[in-house]
Amino acid sequence: MSNKKSILDKIARNELLLGVVGLGYVGLPLAVSFAQEKNKVLGFDKSEPKVNKVNAGQNYIGDIEDEDLKDVVSKGYLTATTDFSTLKACDAVLICVPTPLDRFRKPDMTYIESACIAIGQNLKKGTFISLESTTYPTTTKDFMLPIIERESGLKQGEDFWLAFSPERVDPGNRDYKTKNTPKVLGALTQDGLEIGEAIYKMAIENVHLVSSPRVAEMVKILENTYRLVNISLINELALLAGKMDINIWEVIEAAKTKPFGFQAFYPGPGIGGHCIPLDPFYLEHIAKKFDFDLSMIHTAGHINMRMPHYMYIKIATALNRHKKAVNGSKVLFLGVAYKPNIDDERESPALPIMDTVAKKGGVVSYHDPYIPEITTENGNSFKSLKLDKETLMSADCVVITTNHSVFDGAFIEEHSKLVVDLRNVIKEGSDNVYKL
Ligand code: SAJ
Q1: Considering 120, 210, 311, 334, which has the largest number of Cβ atoms within 10 A of its Cβ?
Q2: Domain assignment of residue 217, yes or no
Protein backbone atom coordinates (compact mmCIF):
# COMPACT_ATOMS: atom_id res chain seq x y z
CA MET A 1 0.00 0.00 0.00
CA SER A 2 1.33 3.49 -0.87
CA ASN A 3 2.25 5.95 1.87
CA LYS A 4 -0.57 8.21 0.64
CA LYS A 5 -3.24 5.51 0.77
CA SER A 6 -2.02 4.39 4.16
CA ILE A 7 -2.32 7.83 5.77
CA LEU A 8 -5.65 8.56 4.09
CA ASP A 9 -7.00 5.24 5.42
CA LYS A 10 -5.83 6.13 8.94
CA ILE A 11 -7.56 9.51 8.65
CA ALA A 12 -10.76 7.85 7.46
CA ARG A 13 -10.64 5.41 10.39
CA ASN A 14 -9.80 8.16 12.92
CA GLU A 15 -6.60 6.24 13.66
CA LEU A 16 -4.18 9.05 12.85
CA LEU A 17 -1.68 9.92 15.57
CA LEU A 18 -1.25 13.69 15.30
CA GLY A 19 1.79 15.45 16.76
CA VAL A 20 1.60 19.16 17.68
CA VAL A 21 4.98 20.79 18.31
CA GLY A 22 4.68 23.84 20.57
CA LEU A 23 1.90 24.05 23.18
CA GLY A 24 1.41 27.80 23.34
CA TYR A 25 -1.53 30.05 22.42
CA VAL A 26 -1.64 28.43 18.95
CA GLY A 27 -0.55 24.82 19.55
CA LEU A 28 -2.59 23.93 22.61
CA PRO A 29 -5.96 25.12 21.24
CA LEU A 30 -5.16 23.30 17.99
CA ALA A 31 -4.28 20.09 19.88
CA VAL A 32 -7.47 20.32 21.95
CA SER A 33 -9.59 20.91 18.83
CA PHE A 34 -8.27 17.76 17.16
CA ALA A 35 -8.55 15.76 20.38
CA GLN A 36 -12.19 16.87 20.77
CA GLU A 37 -12.87 15.15 17.43
CA LYS A 38 -11.67 11.92 19.06
CA ASN A 39 -8.24 12.01 17.38
CA LYS A 40 -5.20 10.86 19.34
CA VAL A 41 -2.93 13.86 19.77
CA LEU A 42 0.60 13.97 21.13
CA GLY A 43 1.64 17.45 22.22
CA PHE A 44 5.36 18.27 22.24
CA ASP A 45 6.95 21.10 24.16
CA LYS A 46 10.41 21.78 25.61
CA SER A 47 8.78 23.23 28.71
CA GLU A 48 8.33 20.47 31.31
CA PRO A 49 5.97 22.64 33.41
CA LYS A 50 3.69 23.11 30.40
CA VAL A 51 3.78 19.39 29.61
CA ASN A 52 3.01 18.51 33.22
CA LYS A 53 0.12 21.00 33.31
CA VAL A 54 -1.38 19.56 30.13
CA ASN A 55 -1.09 15.98 31.43
CA ALA A 56 -2.70 17.09 34.69
CA GLY A 57 -5.50 18.70 32.72
CA GLN A 58 -4.51 22.14 34.01
CA ASN A 59 -5.31 24.78 31.39
CA TYR A 60 -3.02 27.80 30.95
CA ILE A 61 -4.43 29.29 27.73
CA GLY A 62 -7.28 31.81 28.09
CA ASP A 63 -8.92 30.80 24.81
CA ILE A 64 -9.43 27.19 25.96
CA GLU A 65 -12.27 26.19 28.30
CA ASP A 66 -10.70 24.47 31.31
CA GLU A 67 -13.24 21.66 31.09
CA ASP A 68 -12.40 21.00 27.43
CA LEU A 69 -8.75 20.37 28.21
CA LYS A 70 -9.59 18.22 31.25
CA ASP A 71 -12.01 16.17 29.16
CA VAL A 72 -9.68 15.30 26.26
CA VAL A 73 -6.80 14.53 28.64
CA SER A 74 -8.88 12.34 30.96
CA LYS A 75 -10.23 10.43 27.95
CA GLY A 76 -6.68 9.86 26.71
CA TYR A 77 -7.10 11.74 23.44
CA LEU A 78 -4.44 14.31 24.36
CA THR A 79 -1.14 13.64 26.07
CA ALA A 80 1.96 15.84 26.20
CA THR A 81 5.65 15.05 26.31
CA THR A 82 9.08 16.65 26.25
CA ASP A 83 10.47 13.53 24.59
CA PHE A 84 10.78 14.54 20.93
CA SER A 85 11.93 11.04 19.98
CA THR A 86 8.30 9.95 20.20
CA LEU A 87 7.72 12.05 17.11
CA LYS A 88 8.59 8.86 15.24
CA ALA A 89 5.19 7.47 16.25
CA CYS A 90 3.31 10.37 14.66
CA ASP A 91 1.60 10.15 11.27
CA ALA A 92 1.31 13.93 11.02
CA VAL A 93 3.08 16.83 12.73
CA LEU A 94 1.83 20.43 13.03
CA ILE A 95 4.52 22.94 14.03
CA CYS A 96 3.36 25.85 16.20
CA VAL A 97 6.54 27.44 17.50
CA PRO A 98 7.36 31.13 18.07
CA THR A 99 8.74 33.27 15.27
CA PRO A 100 10.01 36.35 17.13
CA LEU A 101 12.45 39.02 16.03
CA ASP A 102 16.00 39.07 17.38
CA ARG A 103 17.50 42.16 19.02
CA PHE A 104 18.37 43.54 15.56
CA ARG A 105 14.67 43.14 14.61
CA LYS A 106 15.58 40.36 12.18
CA PRO A 107 13.63 37.05 11.97
CA ASP A 108 14.68 34.59 14.67
CA MET A 109 14.32 31.21 12.92
CA THR A 110 15.91 29.18 15.71
CA TYR A 111 12.59 27.76 16.94
CA ILE A 112 11.58 26.55 13.46
CA GLU A 113 15.10 25.22 12.89
CA SER A 114 15.19 23.16 16.09
CA ALA A 115 11.69 21.82 15.41
CA CYS A 116 12.76 20.74 11.92
CA ILE A 117 15.89 19.04 13.26
CA ALA A 118 13.91 17.16 15.91
CA ILE A 119 11.28 16.13 13.37
CA GLY A 120 13.91 15.17 10.77
CA GLN A 121 15.77 13.00 13.26
CA ASN A 122 12.55 11.21 14.24
CA LEU A 123 10.73 11.09 10.94
CA LYS A 124 9.04 7.91 9.78
CA LYS A 125 8.05 7.36 6.15
CA GLY A 126 4.55 8.50 5.22
CA THR A 127 4.38 11.51 7.58
CA PHE A 128 2.61 14.82 6.84
CA ILE A 129 4.31 17.95 8.20
CA SER A 130 2.78 21.43 8.31
CA LEU A 131 4.22 24.68 9.64
CA GLU A 132 1.63 26.96 11.28
CA SER A 133 3.93 29.70 12.58
CA THR A 134 3.88 33.06 10.82
CA THR A 135 7.01 33.48 8.74
CA TYR A 136 8.35 35.00 5.52
CA PRO A 137 7.37 33.50 2.14
CA THR A 138 9.81 30.77 0.95
CA THR A 139 10.45 29.48 4.51
CA THR A 140 8.76 26.09 3.98
CA LYS A 141 10.56 25.20 0.76
CA ASP A 142 13.89 26.96 1.13
CA PHE A 143 14.50 26.86 4.91
CA MET A 144 12.60 23.88 6.35
CA LEU A 145 12.79 21.33 3.51
CA PRO A 146 16.62 21.11 3.33
CA ILE A 147 16.87 20.63 7.11
CA ILE A 148 14.23 17.88 7.26
CA GLU A 149 15.64 16.00 4.24
CA ARG A 150 19.19 16.30 5.58
CA GLU A 151 18.29 15.10 9.08
CA SER A 152 15.99 12.30 7.94
CA GLY A 153 17.67 11.14 4.72
CA LEU A 154 14.13 10.93 3.34
CA LYS A 155 12.69 12.63 0.26
CA GLN A 156 9.79 15.10 0.31
CA GLY A 157 6.95 14.04 -1.94
CA GLU A 158 7.89 10.38 -1.76
CA ASP A 159 8.62 9.65 1.91
CA PHE A 160 6.89 12.64 3.58
CA TRP A 161 4.81 15.65 2.67
CA LEU A 162 5.54 19.24 3.65
CA ALA A 163 3.00 22.08 3.82
CA PHE A 164 2.28 25.50 5.30
CA SER A 165 -0.99 26.43 6.97
CA PRO A 166 -0.92 29.73 8.88
CA GLU A 167 -2.43 29.93 12.35
CA ARG A 168 -5.25 32.47 12.63
CA VAL A 169 -5.69 32.65 16.37
CA ASP A 170 -7.18 35.90 17.61
CA PRO A 171 -6.56 35.77 21.37
CA GLY A 172 -9.65 36.74 23.34
CA ASN A 173 -12.00 36.40 20.37
CA ARG A 174 -15.11 34.67 21.69
CA ASP A 175 -16.72 34.24 18.25
CA TYR A 176 -13.93 32.69 16.20
CA LYS A 177 -12.08 29.65 17.50
CA THR A 178 -9.97 26.98 15.80
CA LYS A 179 -12.95 25.02 14.45
CA ASN A 180 -14.83 27.87 12.77
CA THR A 181 -11.92 29.97 11.52
CA PRO A 182 -11.19 29.12 7.86
CA LYS A 183 -7.75 27.58 7.36
CA VAL A 184 -5.49 28.34 4.40
CA LEU A 185 -3.30 25.44 3.22
CA GLY A 186 -0.50 25.22 0.66
CA ALA A 187 1.65 22.11 0.08
CA LEU A 188 4.75 21.30 -1.97
CA THR A 189 2.92 18.48 -3.78
CA GLN A 190 -0.64 17.70 -4.83
CA ASP A 191 -0.59 14.59 -2.62
CA GLY A 192 0.50 16.74 0.32
CA LEU A 193 -2.36 19.15 -0.35
CA GLU A 194 -4.90 16.32 -0.48
CA ILE A 195 -3.57 14.71 2.69
CA GLY A 196 -3.32 18.06 4.50
CA GLU A 197 -6.87 18.97 3.58
CA ALA A 198 -8.13 15.62 4.92
CA ILE A 199 -6.22 16.14 8.17
CA TYR A 200 -7.28 19.73 8.81
CA LYS A 201 -10.91 18.92 7.96
CA MET A 202 -10.90 16.49 10.89
CA ALA A 203 -11.10 19.53 13.19
CA ILE A 204 -11.71 22.63 11.06
CA GLU A 205 -14.88 23.35 9.11
CA ASN A 206 -13.41 25.25 6.18
CA VAL A 207 -10.03 24.64 4.53
CA HIS A 208 -9.03 26.96 1.69
CA LEU A 209 -6.42 25.42 -0.63
CA VAL A 210 -3.79 27.50 -2.43
CA SER A 211 -1.24 26.53 -5.06
CA SER A 212 1.90 26.54 -2.91
CA PRO A 213 3.29 27.09 0.60
CA ARG A 214 4.71 30.39 -0.66
CA VAL A 215 1.21 31.69 -1.39
CA ALA A 216 -0.03 30.50 2.03
CA GLU A 217 2.95 32.18 3.74
CA MET A 218 2.18 35.42 1.91
CA VAL A 219 -1.53 35.22 2.86
CA LYS A 220 -0.72 35.31 6.57
CA ILE A 221 1.89 38.01 6.30
CA LEU A 222 -0.58 40.11 4.23
CA GLU A 223 -3.24 39.71 6.95
CA ASN A 224 -0.92 40.97 9.67
CA THR A 225 0.84 43.64 7.62
CA TYR A 226 -2.59 45.00 6.68
CA ARG A 227 -3.29 45.46 10.39
CA LEU A 228 0.10 46.97 11.22
CA VAL A 229 -0.10 49.54 8.41
CA ASN A 230 -3.72 50.54 9.12
CA ILE A 231 -3.28 50.77 12.87
CA SER A 232 -0.11 52.81 12.40
CA LEU A 233 -1.96 55.08 9.97
CA ILE A 234 -4.75 55.83 12.43
CA ASN A 235 -2.18 56.35 15.19
CA GLU A 236 -0.37 58.96 13.09
CA LEU A 237 -3.64 60.65 12.15
CA ALA A 238 -4.60 60.70 15.84
CA LEU A 239 -1.41 62.60 16.64
CA LEU A 240 -2.21 65.15 13.92
CA ALA A 241 -5.87 65.40 14.98
CA GLY A 242 -4.73 66.14 18.53
CA LYS A 243 -2.71 69.11 17.27
CA MET A 244 -5.69 70.33 15.26
CA ASP A 245 -8.14 69.97 18.14
CA ILE A 246 -10.10 67.37 16.19
CA ASN A 247 -11.65 64.42 18.07
CA ILE A 248 -10.26 61.44 16.12
CA TRP A 249 -12.81 59.10 17.76
CA GLU A 250 -15.66 61.21 16.37
CA VAL A 251 -13.98 61.17 12.97
CA ILE A 252 -13.74 57.36 12.99
CA GLU A 253 -17.37 56.90 14.06
CA ALA A 254 -18.44 59.19 11.23
CA ALA A 255 -16.23 57.44 8.67
CA LYS A 256 -17.82 54.12 9.73
CA THR A 257 -21.15 55.33 8.36
CA LYS A 258 -19.69 54.68 4.92
CA PRO A 259 -21.20 51.26 4.07
CA PHE A 260 -18.35 50.24 1.75
CA GLY A 261 -14.64 50.70 1.29
CA PHE A 262 -13.77 51.58 4.89
CA GLN A 263 -12.76 49.45 7.88
CA ALA A 264 -12.34 51.20 11.21
CA PHE A 265 -9.08 50.90 13.09
CA TYR A 266 -8.62 52.71 16.38
CA PRO A 267 -5.67 54.69 17.72
CA GLY A 268 -3.90 53.61 20.85
CA PRO A 269 -0.63 53.94 22.76
CA GLY A 270 1.09 51.56 20.31
CA ILE A 271 0.71 48.09 18.80
CA GLY A 272 1.34 45.14 21.10
CA GLY A 273 1.14 41.39 20.83
CA HIS A 274 3.52 38.81 19.45
CA CYS A 275 2.22 39.06 15.89
CA ILE A 276 1.20 42.39 14.44
CA PRO A 277 4.18 44.47 15.54
CA LEU A 278 6.65 41.73 14.60
CA ASP A 279 5.46 39.56 11.71
CA PRO A 280 5.54 42.22 8.99
CA PHE A 281 9.28 42.56 9.56
CA TYR A 282 9.64 39.00 8.36
CA LEU A 283 8.26 40.21 5.03
CA GLU A 284 10.56 43.24 5.03
CA HIS A 285 13.48 40.83 5.59
CA ILE A 286 12.71 38.58 2.62
CA ALA A 287 11.85 41.55 0.37
CA LYS A 288 15.43 42.79 0.80
CA LYS A 289 16.67 39.43 -0.51
CA PHE A 290 14.65 40.21 -3.64
CA ASP A 291 16.17 43.68 -3.72
CA PHE A 292 12.82 45.24 -2.85
CA ASP A 293 12.30 47.95 -0.22
CA LEU A 294 8.95 47.63 1.56
CA SER A 295 8.78 51.25 2.66
CA MET A 296 5.21 51.03 4.02
CA ILE A 297 6.16 48.43 6.65
CA HIS A 298 9.28 50.35 7.62
CA THR A 299 7.31 53.58 8.05
CA ALA A 300 4.48 51.84 9.93
CA GLY A 301 7.02 50.23 12.24
CA HIS A 302 8.67 53.59 12.88
CA ILE A 303 5.34 55.24 13.76
CA ASN A 304 4.41 52.37 16.07
CA MET A 305 7.74 52.40 17.87
CA ARG A 306 7.42 56.15 18.54
CA MET A 307 3.88 55.96 19.96
CA PRO A 308 4.88 55.19 23.58
CA HIS A 309 7.14 58.26 23.55
CA TYR A 310 4.31 60.47 22.26
CA MET A 311 2.07 59.03 24.97
CA TYR A 312 4.62 60.00 27.61
CA ILE A 313 4.59 63.57 26.23
CA LYS A 314 0.77 63.55 26.50
CA ILE A 315 0.96 62.49 30.15
CA ALA A 316 3.61 65.11 30.96
CA THR A 317 1.55 67.80 29.20
CA ALA A 318 -1.60 66.87 31.11
CA LEU A 319 0.25 66.97 34.46
CA ASN A 320 1.82 70.28 33.47
CA ARG A 321 -1.63 71.78 32.86
CA HIS A 322 -2.42 70.81 36.43
CA LYS A 323 0.78 72.51 37.58
CA LYS A 324 2.48 69.21 38.28
CA ALA A 325 5.75 67.77 37.09
CA VAL A 326 6.08 64.10 36.15
CA ASN A 327 8.88 63.98 38.71
CA GLY A 328 7.28 63.02 42.01
CA SER A 329 3.78 62.59 40.58
CA LYS A 330 1.86 59.37 41.26
CA VAL A 331 0.83 57.91 37.89
CA LEU A 332 -1.60 54.97 37.88
CA PHE A 333 -1.88 52.93 34.67
CA LEU A 334 -5.15 51.08 34.00
CA GLY A 335 -4.54 48.04 31.79
CA VAL A 336 -1.12 46.60 30.84
CA ALA A 337 -2.36 43.74 28.59
CA TYR A 338 -1.57 44.39 24.93
CA LYS A 339 -5.28 44.37 24.07
CA PRO A 340 -8.61 44.18 25.90
CA ASN A 341 -9.85 41.23 27.95
CA ILE A 342 -6.72 39.04 27.73
CA ASP A 343 -3.89 38.24 30.17
CA ASP A 344 -0.93 38.79 27.84
CA GLU A 345 1.37 41.79 28.14
CA ARG A 346 3.89 40.81 25.46
CA GLU A 347 5.06 43.87 23.47
CA SER A 348 2.39 45.86 25.30
CA PRO A 349 2.91 49.61 24.73
CA ALA A 350 1.91 50.27 28.35
CA LEU A 351 5.23 48.89 29.58
CA PRO A 352 7.62 51.32 27.84
CA ILE A 353 5.39 54.23 28.84
CA MET A 354 5.56 53.08 32.48
CA ASP A 355 9.34 52.79 32.21
CA THR A 356 9.67 56.31 30.81
CA VAL A 357 7.44 57.83 33.52
CA ALA A 358 9.47 55.96 36.18
CA LYS A 359 12.75 57.10 34.62
CA LYS A 360 11.54 60.73 34.78
CA GLY A 361 10.83 60.37 38.49
CA GLY A 362 7.16 59.47 38.33
CA VAL A 363 5.82 57.08 40.99
CA VAL A 364 4.30 54.35 38.82
CA SER A 365 1.59 51.85 39.72
CA TYR A 366 -0.94 49.86 37.72
CA HIS A 367 -4.15 47.92 37.84
CA ASP A 368 -5.02 45.13 35.41
CA PRO A 369 -7.69 42.57 36.34
CA TYR A 370 -6.05 40.00 34.09
CA ILE A 371 -2.39 40.48 35.01
CA PRO A 372 -1.46 40.29 38.72
CA GLU A 373 2.19 41.29 38.32
CA ILE A 374 4.65 42.45 35.67
CA THR A 375 8.30 43.25 35.16
CA THR A 376 9.07 45.83 32.50
CA GLU A 377 11.98 45.86 30.04
CA ASN A 378 13.88 48.18 32.39
CA GLY A 379 13.42 45.63 35.17
CA ASN A 380 10.74 47.59 37.07
CA SER A 381 8.46 45.13 38.87
CA PHE A 382 4.92 45.95 39.88
CA LYS A 383 1.92 44.19 41.40
CA SER A 384 -1.58 45.07 40.23
CA LEU A 385 -3.39 47.34 42.72
CA LYS A 386 -7.04 46.98 43.64
CA LEU A 387 -9.16 49.37 41.53
CA ASP A 388 -11.27 51.43 43.94
CA LYS A 389 -11.99 55.08 44.75
CA GLU A 390 -8.96 55.35 47.07
CA THR A 391 -6.55 54.00 44.48
CA LEU A 392 -7.89 56.39 41.85
CA MET A 393 -7.97 59.43 44.16
CA SER A 394 -4.43 58.83 45.39
CA ALA A 395 -3.06 59.16 41.85
CA ASP A 396 -2.04 62.54 40.43
CA CYS A 397 -2.73 61.11 36.98
CA VAL A 398 -4.64 58.02 35.83
CA VAL A 399 -3.63 56.67 32.39
CA ILE A 400 -6.00 54.29 30.60
CA THR A 401 -3.72 52.14 28.42
CA THR A 402 -5.92 49.08 27.80
CA ASN A 403 -9.69 49.21 27.31
CA HIS A 404 -10.70 46.11 29.26
CA SER A 405 -14.50 45.74 29.08
CA VAL A 406 -14.74 45.76 32.90
CA PHE A 407 -13.37 49.33 33.12
CA ASP A 408 -16.15 51.80 34.02
CA GLY A 409 -15.28 55.13 32.39
CA ALA A 410 -17.73 57.16 34.48
CA PHE A 411 -16.41 55.65 37.74
CA ILE A 412 -12.81 56.33 36.70
CA GLU A 413 -13.57 59.92 35.73
CA GLU A 414 -15.59 60.62 38.89
CA HIS A 415 -12.86 59.48 41.27
CA SER A 416 -9.75 60.70 39.44
CA LYS A 417 -8.06 64.09 39.66
CA LEU A 418 -6.71 63.78 36.12
CA VAL A 419 -7.20 61.14 33.41
CA VAL A 420 -5.22 60.54 30.22
CA ASP A 421 -7.51 58.25 28.25
CA LEU A 422 -5.60 56.54 25.42
CA ARG A 423 -8.40 54.10 24.52
CA ASN A 424 -11.61 56.18 24.42
CA VAL A 425 -13.01 54.48 27.50
CA ILE A 426 -14.43 57.76 28.81
CA LYS A 427 -16.82 58.83 26.09
CA GLU A 428 -17.82 62.31 27.26
CA GLY A 429 -14.78 63.62 29.10
CA SER A 430 -14.75 66.71 31.31
CA ASP A 431 -11.86 69.16 31.88
CA ASN A 432 -9.85 66.65 33.85
CA VAL A 433 -9.87 64.10 31.00
CA TYR A 434 -7.31 64.28 28.20
CA LYS A 435 -7.91 61.94 25.28
CA LEU A 436 -5.66 60.52 22.60
N1 SAJ B 1 -4.85 47.66 17.94
C2 SAJ B 1 -5.06 49.03 17.87
N3 SAJ B 1 -6.07 49.50 17.09
C4 SAJ B 1 -6.87 48.66 16.37
C5 SAJ B 1 -6.64 47.25 16.45
C6 SAJ B 1 -5.64 46.78 17.25
O7 SAJ B 1 -4.35 49.81 18.51
O8 SAJ B 1 -7.76 49.14 15.68
C9 SAJ B 1 -3.75 47.17 18.76
C10 SAJ B 1 -4.21 46.24 19.86
O11 SAJ B 1 -4.49 46.97 21.04
C12 SAJ B 1 -2.99 45.34 20.03
C13 SAJ B 1 -2.39 45.27 18.65
O14 SAJ B 1 -2.92 46.39 17.93
O15 SAJ B 1 -2.06 45.95 20.91
C16 SAJ B 1 -2.71 43.98 17.90
O17 SAJ B 1 -4.10 43.86 17.89
P18 SAJ B 1 -4.86 42.61 17.15
O19 SAJ B 1 -6.32 42.82 17.31
O20 SAJ B 1 -4.34 42.45 15.77
O21 SAJ B 1 -4.50 41.43 18.09
P22 SAJ B 1 -3.59 40.14 18.03
O23 SAJ B 1 -2.21 40.48 17.60
O24 SAJ B 1 -3.77 39.41 19.30
O25 SAJ B 1 -4.29 39.18 16.99
C26 SAJ B 1 -3.99 39.24 15.68
C27 SAJ B 1 -5.26 38.70 15.02
N28 SAJ B 1 -6.26 39.75 15.12
C29 SAJ B 1 -7.36 39.83 14.41
O30 SAJ B 1 -7.55 39.15 13.43
C31 SAJ B 1 -8.40 40.77 14.89
C32 SAJ B 1 -4.87 38.28 13.68
O33 SAJ B 1 -4.37 39.37 12.97
C34 SAJ B 1 -3.90 37.16 13.77
O35 SAJ B 1 -4.63 35.96 13.66
C36 SAJ B 1 -3.11 37.12 15.04
O37 SAJ B 1 -2.85 38.44 15.42
C38 SAJ B 1 -1.84 36.37 14.75
O39 SAJ B 1 -1.59 35.45 15.51
O40 SAJ B 1 -1.19 36.69 13.79
Answers
A1: 334
A2: no
Q: Are residues 319 and 280 in the same domain?
A: yes
User: Considering the chain, what is the average pLDDT of its residues?
Assistant: 96
How many other C-beta atoms lie within 10 A of the C-beta of residue 385? 18
276 and 343 together in one domain: yes
Q: Which residue's CA lies nearest to atom 29 of ligand 1?
A: 170
Confidence of residue 429 (pLDDT cuts 50, 70, 90): confident
Residues 270 and 400 in one domain: yes
Asked whether residue 223 is domain-assigned, the answer is no
Q: Is 426 left (phi over 0), alpha (psi -120 to 50) or beta?
A: beta
Query: How remote is the C-alpha of 168 from its chain's centroid?
Result: 9
Same domain (yes/no): 165, 253: no
| Contact present, 26 and 132 (Cβ < 8 Å) | yes
Q: How far apart are CA 247 and CA 256, in angstroms?
A: 15
Do 152 and 206 share a domain, yes or no? yes
CA of 110 to the centre of ligand 1 (A): 24
Which residue segment(s) compose the domain that 389 sits in? 235-435
Judge if 257 and 399 occupy the same domain: yes
User: Is the domain of 268 the same as that of 202?
Assistant: no
271 within 8 A of 302, measured Cβ to Cβ: no
CATH code for the domain in which residue 174 is found: 3.40.50.720
Q: What's the 276 CA to ligand 1 centre distance in angstroms?
A: 6
Total number of domains in the chain:
2
Q: Quick count: other Cβ atoms within 10 Å of Cβ 380?
A: 15
Q: Is 275 a catalytic residue?
A: yes
C-beta of residue 337 within 8 angstroms of C-beta of residue 402: yes
Cα dist from 410 to 30, 321, 362, whole Å: 40, 22, 25
Ligand 1 pocket mutation pick from 231, 305, 341 by most atoms within 8 angstroms of CB: 231
Choose, from 90, 96, 116, 275, the residue flagged as catalytic.
Answer: 275
pLDDT in tens, 3-13: 899 999 999 99
pLDDT in tens, 59-115: 999 999 999 999 999 999 999 999 999 999 999 999 999 999 998 989 999 999 999
Q: Residues in the chain, how many?
A: 436
